[in-house]
Design a protein that fits this description.
elongated, Elongation Factor Tu (Ef-tu), domain 3, Rossmann fold, 33% helix, alpha/beta, 6-stranded antiparallel beta barrel, 6-stranded parallel β-sheet
């Protein structure tokens, strides 16, 4: 899969595409349905299936610090989009230029001159351009003049409601990992590279793989029964997701104790599937109380994972 970085990254060889535009936060079942239609149309027209997305996401630009936590960082979306058959990702940096760009200019520069789109799939409520003046009707009118199709992407309904990133986020905040997984089509996971920590877990008898989450705030917190991928067969684990104090501030961390494993994981990139929340995060008054609770967490994780091997 090819990454096209920004408007300046669009070259003449990128002209001719079947495209869609969106945030694709989570790449959930609704997104996957859109991508199946996109890739099928791309095969019919013998053109690359292309996803255009924005970094940061527009709401993060307009309301910094007040947006809900993402389901997936860009680095986590990338393999999910590739697995769905996407051939090119156009990543547009969302800043002042795009925020103030008239929708007519966006269509001309990105869709017509940049990608020479032959088929475009977007939601019928899609809005874009300065003051959100661009809409589905504008795209259809322009498409008739410029010679590209515009199709609306139908929402996927599951268990009586539309599949959406906000619905999945609500399940994760509540700790209902199974409900979130049903809408994602897979377990919810976090990924990162194992780094050196303060080795407190090792001192307490529970060595952990510490991973920087590279995000302001995860949509989950607490202690989880988990499975870890990234070095051979998936390994059972108990995982903590929460905030740690670092140099006067707080940063999100993921600390995973792999059950029955004692090897060196430093530098490895791992993906941790969070399968069941065992309990919420809480403060302990002493190390002894913390150690006793960690023993209980390990036993609870082992029991749950043994009962849910598949």
């Amino acid at each position: 899969m090819e990454l096209i970085r920004g408007l300046q990254g669009l070259k003449p060889r990128h002209r001719g595409a079947v495209a869609t535009i969106g945030n694709f936060d989570g790449v959930h079942l609704g997104h996957q349905a859109v991508l199946r239609e996109l890739t099928a149309r791309a095969r019919e027209l013998r053109l690359p299936a292309t996803v255009a997305l924005f970094e940061p996401m527009p709401q993060e630009y307009f309301s910094p610090g007040r947006t809900p936590p993402r389901l997936t960082r860009f680095g986590e979306k990338w393999p999910l989009l590739a697995a769905a058959g996407v051939e090119r990702v156009l990543c547009l940096r969302f800043g002042r230029e795009l925020a103030e760009m008239p929708p007519e200019t966006f269509i001309e520069r990105v869709l017509v001159q940049g990608l020479s789109v032959r088929h475009l799939s977007v939601g019928d409520d899609f809005r874009f351009g300065k003051e959100r003046r661009g809409d589905f009707a504008m795209l259809q009118r322009t498409g008739k003049i410029q010679g590209f199709e515009v199709a609306d992407t139908a929402s996927l309904v599951l268990e009586g409601s539309r599949v959406s990133s906000s619905r999945i986020r609500a399940h994760l905040i509540e700790g209902d990992m199974q409900a979130a997984a049903r809408l994602l089509g897979r377990p919810y996971s976090l990924s990162g590279r194992v780094m050196y920590g303060d080795r407190l877990g090792r001192k307490l008898g529970f060595p952990t793989a510490n991973m920087a989450l590279m995000r302001k705030l995860p949509p989950v917190s607490g202690i989880f029964a988990a499975r870890v991928n990234g070095f051979g067969e998936p390994r059972d684990a108990v995982t903590y997701v929460g905030m740690r104090s670092v140099m006067g501030g707080k940063v999100p961390v993921l600390e995973t104790h792999l059950l029955g494993y004692s090897g060196d994981l430093y530098g490895r990139k791992l993906t941790v599937d969070l399968l069941q929340r065992l309990r919420e995060d809480r403060h302990f008054d002493s190390l002894d109380a913390l150690i006793e609770q960690m023993k209980q967490d390990v036993q609870a994780a082992k029991a749950w994972l043994a009962a849910h091997k598949n």
